[in-house]
Amino acid sequence: MADAAHRHDALTDVTGLRVGHAQRVGSGHLTGTTVVLAPEGGAVAAVDVRGGGPGTRETDALDPRNLVQRVDAVVLTGGSAFGLDAASGVAAWLEDQGRGFRVGPDPSQVVPLVPAAALFDLGRGGDWRARPDAALGRAAAHAAHRSPSGGPVERGNVGAGTGAVAGGLKGGIGTASVLLPSGVTVAALAAVNAVGSPVDPRTGVLYGHLLGPDGAPGAPPAPERHAAAVRALDAARETSRQRAAAAARPPLNTTLAVVATDAVLTRAQAHKLAGTAHDGLARAVRPVHLMSDGDTVFALSTCARPLAPEGTAPAFAVHTEAGALNEVLAAGADALTRAVTDALLSATSVDGPGGLFPSYTELYGEPGAGGAPGASGAEAPGQP
After folding, report:
1. Are 23 and 16 in contact (CB under 8 A)?
2. 111-158: per-residue pLDDT in tens?
3. Where are the alpha helices (DSSP H) in the chain?
4. Which of 99-108, 134-143, 203-212, 240-249 has the lowest mean pLDDT?
5. What are 260-271's pLDDT values in tens digits?
6. pTM of the predicted structure, to 2 decimals
7. What are the DSSP E strand ranges found in 100-183?
8. How far apart are CA 313 and CA 120, in angstroms?
9. Which of 16, 160, 191, 241 has the greatest count of CB atoms below 10 A from its CB?
10. Which string of DSSP letters, residue by residue, matches 263-331?
């Protein structure tokens, strides 16, 4: 469903949205922050939180019954509840730009609305106190601002995905987009950090490829390669338990996502989009929404295109709008499934004082390649 205008298969294919990352790696750090910057004037926003252990900020402001209907940015961050400090840096940066909800006669009298959610990556770099702060949030906002409109989005071990882990595998940032026949774009960005696994234990195929809109990409890994990958992942988990990552028992995680569209949505419709997008997460990771996860999906609408075709006869307008909304909802779930899969395929292995976290591609090679373990070193992930 892509054409030349669909440049990057990324969240930024929704015109007006920009994405910036900032991260700290080394000296005990393995964490970061990702900022989705709305266009001038903000974006209609909503949120759906389904994990049992969320860490969030300003999500109550997204209730359709409340005053402010648009947000200026969304922050996804590592550092658990401590990492929510990053949102303060984003809000301060926006205030410096004069962006936010106007509360006084002077243009500088604004209060930026910056909802945020945090994932758990504490200790994964080796230092329990190495967390995102306001300075890192400001840096991610600045990175988003200076990125070109409609530009590519960096994936893998960046931003909020820097310290992410999913089922023992290295997680990260992934993104994808869908261009509907109507011309509406729907896209997703995910920071994948889950207690559950993204991999089918019987075959080694990513769930997102089995259950996603694109189907399985060719042959699954050869049985002997899958067996070697399982042994390597078990060994990596044991190594991690003996390092600083063992500080959290049981494992604590949380997958965060932003699903966006350029279609005109009300806040109530955006809330529905956030909710149905969780179906896409459930296709790509099993299990999800656990008490040890804080799975959170934000939805954004830049309101650049009509949801239903213009000129629809009034008698059919309600049905046409419902059908158009259904297409957006389905595409949001599909885009999130693909974004989760993209994160796993974009991540690279990490072997540090906080743990050993092999990547999917190191263990299995590229999807559909099949074959036995080879030079990628499936028996010893993260080693030279």
Report:
1. no
2. 999 999 999 999 999 999 999 999 999 999 999 999 998 999 999 999
3. 85-96, 134-146, 207-211, 223-241, 267-284, 314-346, 360-364
4. 240-249
5. 999 999 999 999
6. 0.91
7. 101-102, 110-111, 116-118, 165-166, 169-170, 172-179
8. 50
9. 160
10. E---HHHHHHHHHHHHHHHHHHSBS-S-TT---EEEEEEEEEE-SS-TT--HHHHHHHHHHHHHHHHHH
Nearest to 130 by CA among 348, 344, 356, 353: 353
Extract the tokens encoding 379: 């028996």
165 three-class SS: strand
The residue whose two tokens read 């809330």 is: 271
Cβ atoms < 10 Å from Cβ of 37: 25
**Does residue 41 sit in helix, strand or coil?**
coil
**Quick check: 20 and 144 in contact, CB under 8 A?**
yes
Question: What residues are paired with 22 via a beta bridge?
Answer: 33
**For the residues 231-243, what does the mean pLDDT come to?**
91
**Mean pLDDT of all residues in the chain?**
89
pLDDT value, residue 217: 64
- Look at residue 334 and give its three-state secondary structure: helix
Which pair of structure tokens corresponds to residue 10? 């990324």
Structure tokens at 164: 């992410």
